[in-house]
Amino acid sequence: MKTVPDLCRRRAELTPDAIAFAELATSRSWTFADVDDHAERAATLFEAMGLGEGERVAVLCHNTAIFFEILFACAKARLILVPLNWRQTATELAPILADSGARLLLADGATAELAAALATDQVPLLQFADYEARRDATAPRTRPGTPWETDRPWYLLYTSGTTGKPKAVIQTAGMALSNAVNVQQATGASAADHVLNFLPLFHTAGINLHSLPVFIAGGTSHIIPKFDADAVITLVAEAKLSLFFGVPAIYQAISLHPAFATTDFSAVRHWGCGGAPLPESLIRAFLERGVVVCNGMGMTETGPTVFFMDRANALAKIGSVGKPQLMAEVRLVDLEDRDVPQGASGEILFRGPGITPGYFGNPDATAKAFAPGGWLRSGDVGRQDEDGYYFIVDRIKDMFISGGENVYPAEVEIVLHAHPAVLEAAVLGVADARWGEVGHAVVMPRPGATIDVEALRAYARERLAAYKVPKHITLVQDFPRTAAGKVQKHVLRAIVADEAKS
Known about the structure:
Layout lengths: L2 E2 L2 H8 L4 E5 L5 E3 H17 L7 E5 L4 H13 L2 E4 L6 H11 L3 E4 L4 H7 L6 E3 H9 L11 E2 L3 E7 L7 E6 H15 L6 E4 L6 H5 L2 H7 L2 E4 L5 H9 L5 E4 L1 H8 L14 E4 L6 H8 L5 E6 L6 E4 L11 E5 L4 E5 L12 E6 L11 H7 E2 L3 E10 L5 E6 L4 E3 L2 E3 L1 H9 L4 E11 L3 E10 L7 H9 L10 E4 L13 H13 L1
Parallel strand pairs: 2-12, 4-5, 4-6, 6-7, 11-12, 13-14, 14-15, 26-27
Antiparallel strand pairs: 1-8, 2-3, 9-10, 15-16, 16-17, 17-22, 18-19, 19-21, 20-21, 21-22, 23-24, 25-26
Helix pairs in contact: 1-2, 2-3, 2-6, 4-5, 7-9
């Protein structure tokens, strides 16, 4: 498809009076007709401010329905939205803002101080309160409903993942529609569904898991400014949600909540998880509460949904991310890009309409990201079992070689997570004079638990070959994380290196 209809307008035509967004903090709600009307007025406002096709608009905000109307306004006005990470400092954000070439910065009250530090004569600041007043005073466009090109950049997501320097991943309407199909296939999302929007909106999960797919389907997104375990438990207990998606850190926080053991979780018919592997100990903790968590896997570059575990086989295939969904192709290849046999490990390659066209303004990074034939390199090692289910082995870059043997940290982390005193663990390969590299495990104890390092190492040795057992173990109270809840191993590496020097 070269174009798709204006998805916001078409949804408003289908179910104008249904509730699209409901904010718990403000008690405000937006019907689909409201969202489309606001987006049309905002598009006119942006055009009146002199913003032309392809120009960038940055936004800095906690979770709010206003973000989504601005997102749709940018599609209507053929602008490109750039969500910014409110957890970062002005020093970190300034080069990202400059790289994007944004000509306007929108911000909510919670980020006002940070936004003011970023604003310049070239990038003026428009606070949400002023934006809403000016939007309401603006008439809707006289030419609504223009189709959206499927491959035109719609918004940019700056991602450094766990490695460092940010790159702007292009997101398109074609990717959004493909992701909606994949999410619907995996979860059965429909107009009857209610989801919770709390994952940060500068991350693909905040937009696409599952708020945008559910918007397209005609369902409702309840919005809280950011994650709050009390709010989640309350909404679940009150049967306000039917679909839920979180990252492992979210499931961990829910499992530690005092009401976890007594909450009725049955109203939520599908629980999804992604962003990082969900430890088996957590999977089983939720199983004891009657919750089957379905792991999935994708990337910002894949829109993001590619894999999703089906509920029927989740217990039989613990650790699997499921099968590729309808709009995705997957290959596993060796170092020479040759397909590997079933059961063997290989790099996961992706192709399909949900794949990004590349990195904005960065042709070199785009070229490096793709293999011949338009296949996106994931950087992840995976394997497929005899039933067609996929398992993620580890990140290619995280593998290390100890005494000539390949060690995948994820395999070691699975063993450490199974220890009753361990809440979370991350394993790094560090230099060693004798073996070349050895494992260094950074471990977070469960609340109230005490870990004996030597006993933990002996526990691992009973379950792993000697060369896989971490030589070093460091205990911590928390991990540095990305917005998706992934452990930032490059930051951990710097921390353990500093410890080694002291």
